[in-house]
Amino acid sequence: MRELAYGLELSQQRFIWVVRQPIENDAFAAFFDTVKGGNASTLVDYLLGGFVNRTKEVGICVPMWDPQAEILKHPTTGGFVTHCGWNYVLESIFSGVPMVALPLYAEQKMNATLLSEELGVALRMKVDGGIIFREQIAKLIRRVMVDEDDISMRVKVKEYKLSGEKALSVSGSSHESFCQMTKDYEAKSRVA
Q1: Cα 21 to Cα 63: distance, rounded to the nearest angstrom
Q2: d(CA 89, CA 23)
Q3: Could you give the angle at the alpha carbon of 84 between the alpha carbons of 81 and 89, nearest 5°?
Q4: What pTM value is reported for the model?
Q5: CATH at residue 171
Q6: Which residue, 25, 26, 32, 189, shows the most beta carbons closer than 10 Å to its own?
Q7: Nearest Cα residue to 68 out of 54, 51, 88, 48
Q8: Reading across the β-sheet that carries 80-82, which strands appear in turn?
């Protein structure tokens, strides 16, 4: 968390960061409660050492929840740091927003590989001994947001967005497949 905070700050890019209070039975929450008292504002203060005050002109820390889909669809959103859960990935692609991939566990690592190596719509953070470093975070955020060398990534994610919209349209492939599946199901139901 601390490295991510400093990476956001070093990137010098505008941001919205959801910093949720730990879950009560989580091991991290137990540690936090013994250190600071366990509320969202002290969590931010403890982990980030004045981060909120230093970045108040460029960033917002949201302690509980955000309208993520709406934020991703906003025309000024230029990138998304994500753990690569599939719903987050789909929201980002359907919004045409390139990603910085920070997978945590399970299928997220496979999703990050797909996004960065196959589809070319994300940059993947490298973990060094279980740690990501602020300089790498800042560099990848800047690359996704403003680097002209990575404009192809922004173009690709926009192409996938348009492709998804087309597939979901009334005459699109996903719509047609769903209609066919419904017809097949109805036919089987009548036979049974």
Answers
A1: 7
A2: 24
A3: 90
A4: 0.79
A5: 3.40.50.2000
A6: 32
A7: 88
A8: 80-82, 99-101, 122-124
What the block records as the tokens of 107 is 């299928």
Distance of CA 123 to the CA centre of its chain: 12
**Helix, strand or coil for residue 181?**
helix
What's the domain count of the chain? 1
15: part of which helix (H) or strand (E)? strand 15-18
Q: Are 49 and 6 in contact (CB under 8 A)?
A: no
Quote the CA–CA distance of 67 and 15 in Å, as a whole number: 14
**Spacing of C-alpha 162 from chain mean position:** 20
Short-list 189, 184, 165, CA closest to 175: 165
Which two three-digit tokens encode residue 18?
């959801």
Q: Which domain holds residue 174?
A: 2-191
